[in-house]
Amino acid sequence: MDGNAAKDARETSGMKSDDEAQEKEHFNRIINAFRYYKTHSMQRLNKTETYLHNLPKHHQVLLSKYSHQLENVRVAIEHNYEIIKLIVKDVTKMFENVDHSDVENNEQLTKAAAAALTKASNVDMEKVQSTLKQFVRDWSEEGAEERKACYEPILEEIERRFPLDEHDRRSINVLVPGAGLGRLAHEIARRGFTCQGNEFSLFMLFASNFVLNKCHEVNLYRLYPWVHHYCNNVHSQDQVRYILFPDVDPSELSPDSQFSIAAGDFLQVYTESDAWDCIATCFFLDTANNIVSYLETIWKILKPGDRKSVV
Question: Of 67, 190, 235, 304, whose CB has the highest number of CB atoms within 10 Å?
Answer without folding.
Answer: 190
